[in-house]
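User: Teach me something about this protein's shape.
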Amino acid sequence: MSMKAPMEKPESVTSIYTNQNLTGESPEKVEYRWPPDLYTEAVDMASISFLIYEFGLLIDIARKENGLIGLSDFKNDTDGERRSFSPEEVLDLVQNNIETLRKRYPKKFKEGQALTNLQNLIEKANQSDLERPLTLQEFDDNYQRHEMVYGITKDDINKRISVVFRGTENKLAFKTNWLSNVDLRKVTADLPQALEGVVHKIHLHSGFYNYIFSKTMDEKDDPTNRKYDVILKDCKILLEQNPGYKLYVTGHSLGAALSTIFAFYVACDEDIPKPVTCINFASPRVGSKNFRTATQWLEKRKMLRLLRFVNQNDSITTVPFFKYHHVGIGVRLYGSEEEPTIKYTGKGGCFCERFSQIWNNSIIANLNLSYDHKSYMTRIEKDKPALEKLDLNDLYKIYHPKD
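Assistant: First, the predicted structure itself:
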């Protein structure tokens, strides 16, 4: 089922949600105010997705240059370097070290290019009366030549904790990122207990799955600890410290694939408030048809909300193409004046509609070897009027109406 952006936004969903768990024990009614439209959610998630790239380059400079100009300003008296950074603090570090950054990464730190996402976040923070309402709480790239890179942010304005997976970074982790990207084998993945009886088994892209579920490289960790376990533990601590907050997951390109898999599993954890929301950009396909079926089961039960933004002619979103399937609600963005189109993956439709979906998602129709993935933000801004008329919860009411 596909649709164009509506002329008028339908009536907004209620701001009261059920803090569900998998045990069925006395659900607690909690007031939660969801973002008002797709544009707001998209800009928020895109901004922190690209922030992770820029923060990683800052940390790389700090290692290679034996520190950053201005970093000493962010110390405290208890445990050394401050654990969290606000967007304004990150911007200060970027500006203090801009010449070094431009020297090492000239394409990424041209005038105005790398600072746009930070400025979007600062503008949002300045609209709040809260002290440091947006913060990067965790960032782990210590073993990026072997492990994935991720960050965790806290948003006190929207009451959410967001896990952000960095996408492919050719400068810092070329080999390990691309080995994961091109490992197209399928692996029989662990089936969460919540999904027993829904599907018999699921298969996932081996490179992406192993990136999340491989053992950690840190010798201080329990030898049985997987990267997934470390991130999940961080999330649970932050959610426990901030009752009433929701969990979001996001990423771009490789990070989008990782966000899909992580959100799928964490949505099955009984200790995580539901629904988990995954909003990502330029995601390749990650799993089998059974994986899609299991994802739809979670969506129908309001355990998971999953939204993919896809640029027309983005080759990354068309692979792997043999027996791999997209999941969630897809929003296709166009470089022309055409408004975005919305498609819920796996829903039926007439033959012409199904053929159009297959063609639009094919590598032939989207072949483009020189594409700049960061234009996602440009297209989201172009489509602001259309995206402001859409609401993710309302879309799920269309695709999963009550039985």
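Now, about its shape. The mean pLDDT is 81. The first strand starts at residue 2 and ends at 4. If you'd like, I can walk through any region in more detail.
User: That's plenty for now, thanks!
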